[in-house]
Protein 1
Amino acid sequence: GFGFWSHDIGGFEGTPDPAVFKRWLAFGLLSSHSRLHGNVSYRVPWEFGEEAVDVARRFTLLKHRLMPYLYGVAAEAHRTGVPMMRPMLAEFPDDPATRTLDRQYMLGPDLLVAPVFTEEGEVEYYVPEGTWTSLLTGESVTGPAWRHETHGFDSLPLLVRDGAVLPWGADDQRPDGDWLDGLTLRVFGPSTGERTVTVPDLTGATAASFHVVRDAAGVRVTAEGTGRPYRVTAEDSGAAGEGTGTVTVA
């Protein structure tokens, strides 16, 4: 498949209905790259009302905070050909329920995205096995299960996989900042185990790596390649710690 794939937010031809445009903003800003582009009419959010501006702002700020994660996934796509936006089957090949899912996807290995395609804001999507956490609300969801939800324009199902460690940027104003400046490692889910997470520089090379161990004693993170301070949060417990070198969250 395509390592990087995107779409014209609001569609290319004609002028979209404002409700369609607002739903499309959330989808487009949770794609590999995002563009407000079309023919005949402008696609700038303020042409579709103040609420559209609010939706564009919310998901743009979110994407900026996610850039250390997303750029790392982009570097992986460049190295391996595994796409940033992945069919559910690619991450869950042993789950037969994922074989026909075509209205949701994994954005990298750890984020499940289910865009809203209905006028009423209703969305039905499948959650694979494990404990998942809504990145927008903090709600915990257990799979395997089908979910039926109703979302406003400023929301959609966006779940983080159990065991994920999201490198979370401090700067929400630009997509190409210094991601090690004020970095937070957000550890999700109750599962125990080990994981190594890398934060790239703007060339896609590894700027720093973090080895994360979670067990009954808590979360322990050891940094390599950087002596700069960073923060660790255990999202299921609310515990947090910060420092350099090795950081432990009990």
Note: Residues 165-249 form a domain with the Immunoglobulin-like fold (CATH 2.60.40.1180).
Protein 2
Amino acid sequence: MKVLITGATGGIGRALIKVFYRNGWEILAVGRNQNMLTELKEKYKEKLNIYSLDIEVEKNIDELFKSLEGQHIKLLINGAGIGELGYFEDISYGVEKRMIDINIIALIKFTKYFYGKTEGIINISSTAGFQYGGPLMTGYYATKSFINSFTFGLMGEGGKTRMMLLCPGPTLTNFKGVNKELKGLAKFYTTTPEEVAEKCYSDYLKGKRISIPGKINKILYFFNKMMPIMFQLKVIKKIQEKKTKK
């Protein structure tokens, strides 16, 4: 069984590799950091194949697809994603476009290529995708809302490939704005990459359509639906403002 994981050198990506390796899968790891990929290759040996490329550039993805011809990949995990913290007026168009190219365009391109060929596709989004918007992370939240809507749409079409949406909340990775020193309520709803990966694998095997790691995050997901829009936006803004001051 083969699984292809984009964003494989990130915190959640690396944790997913460990879980799938432990369960006997052969892993195709796609990432930008050649050094990290080499380290992973040395650790997992013949069970891991590495592909170093920047998926921001579409022609790089096309070249990858050519190299994968003839391989039977059972599962695709679209895990690559980036974010930017700050007021929209202070973030350049180039940075916003890069988020769209990686978080949306690359995800669509991989999904388009593998849809109908693989047994399943897991799109990694975020609980942010369920919010009305994300002040100070406007572009990022918007890309995650797209991923949610896009994935749910494919679920509704009922094609041959089974779709699952993984929506972690704040996770202890190197993602921008994540504070490694947990304080207050953050201790209760922040998860580790390992927890996210284990939940993802378990829920996929159970045939679930949506996976939200962490009991508190699940509660917040349902509570979010009852919150007035402007109140929700004010709360998010305060949370993000605190991150900019650290």
Note: The CA atoms of residues 125 and 147 lie 6 Å apart.
Protein 3
Amino acid sequence: MTRFDLNGRKAIVSGGTRGLGLGMAEALLEAGAEVVILGSSDKVHEVAAGLAASGDQCHGVVVDLSGHQQRREGFESALDKLGGELDILVNAAGVQRRHPSEHFPLEDWEAVLEVNLTAVFELCQLAARAMLERDPQGQGQGKIVNIASLLSFFGGMTVPAYAASKGGVMQLTKALANEWAARGINVNAIAPGYMATDMNSALLADEGRYAEITARIPAGRWGCGDDMQGPLLFLASPASDYVHGVTLPVDGGYLGR
């Protein structure tokens, strides 16, 4: 067994039907984990079936992450599919809204914070309970990986709710690590840089802004789902057993310039 081997591990990935979440679900499956992907529509079943076609163990659960009851029921359904055991949680689901801040609708603010921060906290909480309950002494064993953002470090433009939510994810990651590190649970985060995904379609379509951003990335390109796989496997595997409360930028060097 190598430090990055996940054979026998059981994982839940929210937002696993496309983009970065799908890439990370694929990485966990390739490393040997059994994976449940959470998605907001029936498409999740199609994606899970496609991932399982090669012989991997992958299941899909439809979850509306904007509601407390739906989140709880979705998590319990996912846990049932994993036989009641959980080793890894990846909080990859997220939403984006863009408006000038002076006109930013309160309903959009609330929608973004609910999915990007409140849902992350609740899924972390539910996962930690499941991990801790496996040991009668309350000593768990598990890995929680949250998805932060470069906007955890700076503010961006016309995305105040997203920036606030991702800043919150970074601080939440530290807070949970403080409480659960000594109890056998690693809580860390990955901060993707500028990624060529659907969420960034507006930036990708803006030729001037796209060129400006690309010029600042030392690696000379935007990221993709594959770029998240190695960092995720590190944080989800025994290789990171002494890593707690970290937000790891995966940004092509953007923050360093």
Note: The radius of gyration is 18 Å.
